[in-house]
Amino acid sequence: MGYRAMFAVGFAVGYVVGTRAGREKYDQMVQYAKQVAANPAVQKTTETVKTKTTEVTKTAMAKAPEVAKSASKQVPKIVSSAKQMATDHMPAKLGGKGMPDESDDVSADGQLVYPADDASAPVNGARYS
């Protein structure tokens, strides 16, 4: 329902901005908007939304310090876990515990090694000669 209301408001604003009908059409729309706002059902819904919003805001404000405290306790654990995972996957030559240089594309003398340079290197899972 909120999407419909926003669409109606957007349509009305666009009509007012884009119309050349003049002041008369604008006054008609303002009068209609006042009638809608004066409707008891609309006023009741507005009051309900205000009440619920106030309740949710108070609840959130009461819980915020507790949530922040528990989050501050978890951050160091998450950071140390991330560091451990990073070093586990980092190559050994960069100080990690990952795979040795055998999966590296650089030879011992610093030259790049391409799989196509080796006659027995697989290409897409098949060996070509």
User: Strand percentage, roughly?
Assistant: under 5%
Q: Based on DSSP secondary structure assignment, what is the total number of beta strands?
A: 2
Class based on secondary structure composition and strand pairing: mainly alpha
Strand order of the largest sheet: 1-2
> For the terminal residues, how far apart are their CA atoms?
68 Å
Q: Round the mean pLDDT to the nearest integer and report it.
A: 77
What is the 3D form? elongated
Main beta sheet: 2 strands, antiparallel
Order of helices and strands: HHHEE
* Rg, Cα atoms, Å: 33 Å
Uncertain residue segments: none
Helix proportion: 55-70%
Oligomer kind: single chain
Number of helices: 3
Labels describing this entry:
129 residues, mainly alpha
Walk me through the structure.
The protein is mainly α and 129 residues long. Helices cover 64% and strands 3% of the residues. The chain has helices at residues 2-18, 23-38, 40-89; strands at 122-123, 126-127. Strands 1-2 form a two-stranded antiparallel ribbon.
Give a quick rundown of the structure.
The protein is mainly α. The chain has 3 helices and 2 strands.
